[in-house]
Design goal:
15 strands, alpha/beta, about 15% strand, single chain, six-stranded mixed sheet, Rossmann fold, 4 domains, about 550 residues
């Protein structure tokens, strides 16, 4: 777990907290719009300030009047949980609006927490707005730092003051204490050498030189031993897995956290599933569709494996998406598919699968991501007949994904969530699975012998060999004399044969046909159509008219 100090960005709605969060962590991970109350969940990120790592959490706007609403109460719970976790609180106010009664109330509530508070006056875009900061000192929170989150003005000075104001426990950390111990040991060693030089005289100098040589030799031997141990550990790991090999395209470290994105229509239960797995209210849940607006990452551990659960906004049909906020939310949700390793398509079992679910499944397959179909709210399905009909609907709707695993669960009761994560782990293994080239070619020779590729322009297609060129998804390269002659139907046939032999459950496959270099039987260009030759017809000269 990251032990970097946590900074909570808080304030009333629409003062620029998400914009400042994006400025600190880089990019645009948080949804930004002029509409107040858009941020509802906690969103965590990291900020590096000249080698100093900080964790930053973006929160929703604090408004006691909106707390009477169910959604407003949930936003308040999320924000105060972030404040309780934080080492320092960054209060953001709108300098152009001056001090509002809500700003004064939030400042009063924050002072009762006893945590260090830094006051940032946002939207100070130029020197002409600097005088607006003067009135903010009446909040009684000390120095006011004028910043412009949109343009980056004054952010460095704010971060410098923030790092200086961190508590000693959060500012020091274990690394600093370890570094102090090292420097203390070096100082003690130097003092000991100086005392030995003063007492020993010339003999002492010789002994000191010997001691220095011995110490240098010891350090060199220790470094050599450390490097030797590292090499031995690396060799031992290689013996357990496989000989050292070239990293495939799409391959990454096996111990990296597995990103699992929950995708689906609005009100399918994605946030409830995230909260059930995380064991806390990580995402705001409400019966009104569209409660989640931007993606929320949640670190999660199960069975010794690290995960990152990504809750996304619900995606409706494109014709129904009209508001700009929803368009941005849908775009960010689809962007999480590209970043994920495995995507869980969450479907409301009480409504059954729809055409929109099929479109989302097609987008996941096209992106080359592992997929698990989760039928949520299965506790509403009564009787074996209804369950059988539901599974038949799933089979008919996702006929192009007959290789994707399907599971039934209930996020509200927790039924089937363990089975879901077990399927996710298995699909992740299949998604990065490798098959040796020799084994592939032995299998492929049998496949081609039984069903050779059809002729192309009256010529036989010679397939030389096959190899795996990448993972995530598994991609196979086919070398042939006529790449254009291998029809898509034959590629689908090869993919089906690969699935029958090696499984690859839950992951799409790719087959790419390439031209073998130096092949004498290269693909000949199609014959050019000869233009018909127009025959010239001999015409008799016209007779001249006689003059009268």
């Amino acid at each position: 777990m990251n032990d970097a100090p946590l900074v909570a960005i808080v304030g009333r709605p629409n003062v620029g907290k998400s914009t400042l969060y994006n400025r600190l962590v880089g990019g645009r991970p948080a949804l930004v719009h002029d509409t107040p109350g858009l941020t509802r969940d906690r969103r965590y990120g990291t900020c590096d300030y000249f080698g100093r790592e900080l964790r930053v959490v973006d929160t929703g706007g604090l408004d006691p009047e909106a707390e009477a609403d169910v959604v407003g109460a949930g936003i308040h719970r999320q924000a105060w949980r972030a404040i309780d976790e934080a080492d320092i609180v960054l209060l953001v106010v709108d300098a152009t609006a001056g001090i509002t009664p809500l700003d004064a109330e939030i400042a009063r509530m924050l002072r009762t927490t006893g945590k260090p508070i830094l006051l940032a006056a946002n939207k100070v875009d130029g020197p002409k707005r600097d005088p607006m900061v003067g009135d903010l000192y009446t909040l009684g929170l000390g120095e006011v730092y004028a910043v412009s989150a949109a343009h980056g003005r004054g952010v460095d000075q704010m971060l410098e003051a923030l790092c200086a104001k961190l508590p000693e426990r959060a500012a020091g950390g274990g690394e600093a204490e370890e570094g102090d111990d090292i420097f203390d040991a070096l100082d003690a060693a130097i003092d000991g050498e100086d005392e030995g030089d003063q007492e020993g005289g010339e003999d002492g100098d010789e002994e000191g030189e010997d001691d220095d040589d011995a110490e240098a030799d010891a350090v060199a031997v220790a470094d050599h031993d450390d490097a030797h141990d590292h090499d031995d550990a690396h060799d031992h790991d290689g013996e357990d897995e496989a000989p050292e090999r070239r990293r495939m395209p799409g391959e990454r470290d096996a111990d990296a956290p597995l990103r699992v994105a929950f995708l689906g229509k609005p009100n399918a239960g994605k946030s409830s599933l995230t909260n059930r797995l995380a064991g806390e209210e990580r995402s705001l849940v409400h019966h009104v569709p569209g409660t989640t607006t931007d993606p929320v990452d949640t670190p999660f551990e199960m069975g010794g494996r690290q995960y990152v659960l990504v809750d996304t906004a619900g995606i409706r049909r494109k014709a129904r998406v009209e508001e700009e906020i929803e368009k941005i939310s849908v775009s960010m949700a689809l962007g999480q598919v590209q970043r994920a390793d495995v995507v869980v398509l969450v479907i409301d079992a009480s409504l059954g699968p729809s055409e929109q679910d099929a479109r989302l499944a097609g987008a996941i397959e096209e992106a080359g991501k592992g997929i698990v179909i989760a039928l949520n709210k299965s506790d509403l399905i009564r009787g074996a007949t209804a369950e059988k009909e539901l599974r038949q609907q799933v089979q008919d709707t996702f006929h192009f994904l007959d290789w994707a695993p399907v599971t039934m669960l209930s996020a509200a009761r927790g039924d089937g969530t363990d089975r879901l994560m077990d399927l996710v782990a298995r699909v992740a293994i299949e998604h990065r699975r490798r098959v040796a080239t020799a084994e592939l070619n032995r299998f492929f020779a049998q496949v081609v012998e039984v069903t050779p590729p059809p002729l192309h322009h009256g010529r036989a297609i010679r397939i030389h060999y096959i190899t795996q060129g990448g993972v995530r998804p598994p991609t196979f390269l086919l070398w042939a004399n006529q790449p254009g002659g291998v029809a898509p139907s034959y590629r689908r046939y090869l993919i089906n044969q690969l699935r029958k032999r090696y499984g690859f459950r839950g992951t799409p496959l790719r087959v790419v046909v390439k031209q073998k270099s130096g092949d004498r039987h290269k693909e000949a260009p199609p014959p050019k159509k000869r233009k018909p030759v127009k025959q010239k017809v001999a015409r008799l000269p016209k007779a001249k008219a006689k003059r009268r």
